[in-house]
Fold this sequence. Notes:
This protein is α+β, with helices and mostly antiparallel strands. The protein has one domain (7-107): Ribosomal Protein S5, domain 2. Helices cover 43% and strands 22% of the residues. Strands 1-2-4-3 form a four-stranded mixed β-sheet. Helix 1 runs parallel beside helix 2. The model has no long low-confidence stretch (mean pLDDT 91).
Amino acid sequence: MFSANNKLAGYPLLLLYLPSTGFRPEAPVQTAFSVPRRKIKKAVKRNRIKRLMREAWRLNKHVLYEALQEQEKSYDFVFIYIGQEENPAFRQMEKAVKKLSKKFLQKEKF
């Protein structure tokens, strides 16, 4: 996943993605979330950021799911937090997830 050049940036998140083998109609996108220890030292703060990322994804994934189910494609996603802020706002996270979703749909031509 990390060696492929399929990445999109939308501050404070970075999205890495790969097409999956086979189509999974129940979940066309499998996601993982990462917050590097180098940037955010305290585990409590890293976990909070991951919770924000997961919630923003949960509320906005339906847009991608609909487009992928029409095309019968599935992908693996990794969201990586690249921001410097230790206490980001949920609105900022949600805005970044929406932005990355739009970029992904445009790049993959859905």
